[in-house]
Give the backbone structure.
Amino acid sequence: MRDPTFWILARASGLTAYVLLTMSVLAGLVLKSRPFGRALSAATVTDTHRFLAFLGLGAVALHGITLVLDSTVHISLPALLVPGLAPYRPLWTALGVLAAELAVVLVISFPLRKRIGMRAWRRLHWATYGVFALATVHGLAAGTDTPTPWAFALYVGAVGSVVFATAWRALNRPVRPPTKGGHDVPNTDRPLTV
Amino acid sequence: MYRIQIDRSLCSGFGACAELAPEVIELDASGNATARVGVTDDPAVLDAAAACPMAAITVIEEEAEAA
């Protein structure tokens, strides 16, 4: 009988990566909208946000490696990097590859934020919503656990919580004066925020 | 009175401080936070320090000098 270890690990690490991504996105939104005010220091939330994102990438790496080692679905090493190479549900696995690559770019961009420029970095950081959307569709459509009630509930809970936290953030934007668009040097009297 | 110290090597220009305590902290031309004054009695600086994602702002509470 085939050893199911890698197959089980691949599914578990995929779902774990998705949960960590969701938690990191939620921490990022807490950082922006600060629903707990001064009770929770922003620096602590930043550390948590980055740590969760980093752990998430670790889980994604495990997800990819175990899928290559497993023989249930045939995924080669190059297919982990090139979207569309995997023969198993090619479109839906391609979305997962893209999500992972974009996530790597976002994590790397943090230490490089000053070199990139804060304005460009902020714009780039919006791509996190792209990672979350790609990962959600990838998980729902390529994941073999999706038909089970618990996995489906996990996706619904993740999307619901991110939508809720995003709406909260949008409704709790600090009031600020109108900004002039199109210049890279921030005006001293017009603080910039995402 | 609150004495404000901003570690400019940590500051990344997120701008939360200048939004919360605009009377005390502003962003300079390079986008980094800079204190308008060294000491203030505006308690908004406490919010500004707590809201800094990089923990770049230190606020030291001082006894007000007798006039």
User: Anything to note?
Assistant: Chain B has a mean pLDDT of 91.
